[in-house]
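Holo prediction — LCS.
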Amino acid sequence: MNKTGFSTRAIHSGEREEETGAVVTPIYQTAPFKFKSAAHAASVMAGEEKGYVYSRGLNPTTEVLEEKMADLEGGEAALAQATGMAAISAAVFTSIKAGDHVIADEVIYGSTYDLFVDMAKFGVEVSFIDTSDSGNVEDAFRPNTKLVFFETPANPTMKLTDIKAVSEIAHERGAEVMVDNTYMTPYYQQPLACGADVVVHSATKYLNGHGDTLGGVIVGTSDFIKRARHTAKNIGGAMSPFSAWLIIRGMKTLPVRMDRHTENAMAVARFLQSHDKIEKVIYPGLPEFPQYDLAKKQMSGFGGMIAFLLKDAKDVPLFLDSLKMCTLAVSLGETGTLIQHPATMTHAVVPRDDRIRYGIADELVRLSVGLEDVEDIIADLGQALDRVNY
Ligand code: LCS
């Protein structure tokens, strides 16, 4: 299916001819699978032939999602996990060992940041730096650096990292590059084609798109995914077949949803930009975005995430509490517009001084622009901003 278009592949890749003629991938809601014989069991367990054994390791429904994601990201193989964090932990534990050094961007999702902070107790050193400046990446390298990890755009500040430039620096020095592609999805950005080695996702977000399940995916070479599957099987964070089924269903409409998210976000960004109570709007689709040229080079669309700063942090609670339709909730990438305050919500785990230094200001609000009529999103934001007085 590789030569067909992205939308076609989002629908058809990985899908199988079912014996029953089922057109939609069935949910194989089973923990174990029956062996044909003792000899068959021994051969499958020894890895001499492929077979399903136990859904913590491999499940036919989840496998359809894995093959679809591998194809869409342009990787050799993929592994689905119960959550984005399960996928990121399994991928990181596959990549590194005690004594290694990791370079991580300082602006990443709060739990990912926390995971890297925790790595110290396993004898792994992590340097949090600003990877948007490739020079910083070069400077942070040590002889034992094995992994460079970043999100682009970064949650929540929208800062971009040049995947190609950082991959070249890392590869010259023998390190792997892992990119969290949750914000863009493979529809808008394919990190492997830019030189990265591994892609991770929270499938909870745009891939599923409907906010009704958690999920995570790792994409990479067959060798990396084989090793990750081994690690992940022992950690135990397998994706449930029902979650896989929901995410497969969501992904069939990924391109149409992403295009509408982008169209709505562009209009909302322009509205916020023109509003006198807003200090600054950060959206990669605006020509004023500091890395607009990199955005156009590395992404084929700008997505549905916007960050903006109110003029005064003390007005954030009143603004959020005044919204009538936009939902005050963490998470992102679903049908309805979600709004949250990173300083007190998704990034509350980052110590305040570090957080401010990283640009995650107290005034910063994160908006996941949904698929509602854009006039209604703008009207709701407008009436809430009217309640804020300076
Ligand atoms: N990567 C990114 C970029 C994320 O935004 C998240 C979750 C994860 C990984 C982890 O995925 P999960 O385990 O939740 O599936 N981001 C969230 C957020 O911004 N608000 O709530 C969750």
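READOUT: Residues 254-386 form a domain with the Aspartate Aminotransferase, domain 1 fold (CATH 3.90.1150.10).
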